[in-house]
Amino acid sequence: MAAILEIQNVTKTFRGGVRAVDDVTLAVEEGEFLTILGPSGCGKTTTLRMVGGFEFPDAGRIVLDGRDVTDLPPYRRPVNMMFQDFALFPHLTVAQNIGYGLTIAGMKRREAAREVEEALHTIELLDKADRRPAELSIGQKQRVALARALIRRRRSCCSTSRCRRSTPSSVNRCRWS
Ligand SMILES: Nc1ncnc2c1ncn2[C@@H]1O[C@H](COP(=O)(O)OP(=O)(O)OP(=O)(O)O)[C@@H](O)[C@H]1O
Ligand SMILES: [Mg+2]
């Protein structure tokens, strides 16, 4: 089976000489659920940020669906990110956060609202649709971030967050596609 994500000999050194990622190579196949474990500061988030296009490698290649995306910006990559600190938009409601990507992609308002409602139902937050992120628990924020990352049904999704606050059932049911 062809890999949908390939990280090929990727290296990243930050200013000051911190070698955050050192010659990492791995491949993820369709349907595979990969978890990267390692001590704090070992380069997990930096690796995933390079997959998402939020950092660029000094050496090596990122290949998504057979296409070299190493130099492409985030919005031109077929991948969604769920950030370690969730990065929810504080001024938007839960529903608006989840639907943001659909709106940007030009989906019709009624269709987007239906998708968002389905997502809210899946993460069991229908009753919190109009709240702002500051009015949520950490676990609820995490589920909103997960729904926002998955709602566009892209072929790959990276999460730099531990999902320990999402119940196993809500994570499983979030595998919409
Ligand atoms: N923008 C940056 N500038 C300089 N150094 C950075 C930057 N981002 C990360 N680093 C450093 O790179 C190394 C890897 O960081 P990274 O965030 O990838 O670790 P991590 O494995 O995700 O850690 P954690 O489990 O704590 O989230 C760390 O030493 C960190 O301090
Ligand atoms: Mg991290």
TrEMBL record:
UniProt keyword terms in alphabetical order: ATP-binding, Nucleotide-binding, Transport
Keyword flag RNA-binding: no
Superkingdom per UniProt: Eukaryota
Ranges for domain ABC transporter: 5-177
SUPFAM superfamilies registered for this protein in UniProt: P-loop containing nucleoside triphosphate hydrolases
GO terms, molecular function: ATP binding; ATP hydrolysis activity
PANTHER family: SPERMIDINE/PUTRESCINE IMPORT ATP-BINDING PROTEIN POTA, SPERMIDINE_PUTRESCINE IMPORT ATP-BINDING PROTEIN POTA
Protein name as annotated: Spermidine/putrescine import ATP-binding protein PotA
Organism of provenance: Geodia barretti (Barrett's horny sponge)
